[in-house]
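Team,

Forwarding the record for the chain on the shared tracking sheet. I've put the sequence and predicted structure together so nobody has to dig through attachments.
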Amino acid sequence: MKALQLEKVSFAYLDATVLRNINLSVEKGEMIGLLGPNGSGKSTLLKLIAGVLRPNQGEIYLDGLNLKQLKRKTIAQRVAVMPQQFSMPFAFTVKEVVALGRTPFLKMFSNGREDEEIIDYAMQLSRVKPLEQRFFNELSGGERQRAMLAMALAQQPDLLLLDEPTVHLDINHQIELLELVRSLNKEQGLTIIAAMHDLNLASLYFERLILLREGSIFTEGRPVQVLTSEIIQQVFSATVQVEPHPLTHTPHIVVLPKGD
């Protein structure tokens, strides 16, 4: 059974169509990078998959079940979202933030022993266990991202959605986070879809890429199929040179300056 299936999905905000006729099939255990220019519909697509938004047309199936027929709580027990930004107005510790991931499973408004074990394990997987008593708002950018990832993992999801998880991080923390995400995919078998801004990082860490343009899937496939100079020129209106990475041989994009 497929982890996720989208059939002719379209979505519009009022009169502005954002996504058009999206057909997408995701196998269990896949790790997919979602690419596209700003405004191409990446974040909206993730919100549709998470059940936050509902398509105007088309159907979305999660493990063979129609998303329209599932309660929000049921979806949250299967799908976790790591947002691009997360605001915490209160002085919550890292552990308290991670514990929010157990909300879809709470019965008596408090965590039981099993929940505590899951929270602890999620912090260990995301490498924030030593930070559990630190205040979330006092963490560095990289530490916050790992804490948010731990919160998502505390949901014990079948499908993890990440919305540009590296966009506010320096290069060291970008690599650290993506290495962690890849290890969760390989070792835990977690199905992952991540909207990515950096094409080179997407090429390095994702075996399958989906490229959106103006709300439609322009192309998809392995990095070598998707990240060509011709396709990047068409979709991003950028002049680039694509070369094999010296170590991984995946496409490496070199941006060329525009002539006068």
